[in-house]
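Reminder: ligand-aware prediction takes two inputs, not one.
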Amino acid sequence: MTILVLMGPPGSGKGTQAQVLAGRLGMPAISTGDIFRANVADRTDLGNRAQDFVDAGEYVPDQLTNQMVRERLAAKDTRHGFVLDGYPRTLDQVEVLDELLANQDRKLDAVVVLDVDPDHLVQRLLHRAELEHRSDDTEDVIRRRLQVYNEQTHPLIKVYDERGLIIPVDGTGEIDEVTARILHLADSLENRGS
Ligand code: AMP
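Here is what comes back for the chain with adenosine monophosphate:
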């Protein structure tokens, strides 16, 4: 059983890599951003409460986010492990995840941090904006999302590093190259302790 977190600034490719990685490892990728977007599109109560935050590039309040993750992680498909994409993003979320995993007698195996040159991030996101038309891929909102990441999420790297969980991965290059780098490390994870 493997539990991974993929972390990195907006545009670092964590969503893509989380999906590929989860597919190879045969477990679900859980993307809080995708869950919020689906709820916004379906106009659910959660979606209506999250929409203004998502559109502005601000984080959805912890209470709402944590409750959603609590419910998602209770699903049966997570029992052999999962890859978290975009969660945790705040210190409060780190604590809630710790508590959730401890209650299930599970623990985090690694936090993969995708590293990409900040100048490339905005270019990548603007390119994606042309393809996907996400409501938060306008230039102003992109800059706000990068700022929010630096202020609220980047500090988590230190917290997880103190626990020896951080695995930095170069996120530049083709999707396949980055996947190969992560899989190489996933292999060593699977062999760890065996
Ligand atoms: P993402 O697709 O991961 O870039 O997430 C898109 C947006 O969803 C973010 O800019 C936030 O508004 C919201 N979001 C996703 N994950 C979280 C989280 N862990 N905490 C708070 N807000 C989140």
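The chain has one domain: 2-181. The pocket of adenosine monophosphate is lined by residues 10, 32-33, 36, 53-54, 57-60, 65, 86-87, 89, 93, 136, 145 (CB under 6 Å). We will return to this case in the review session.
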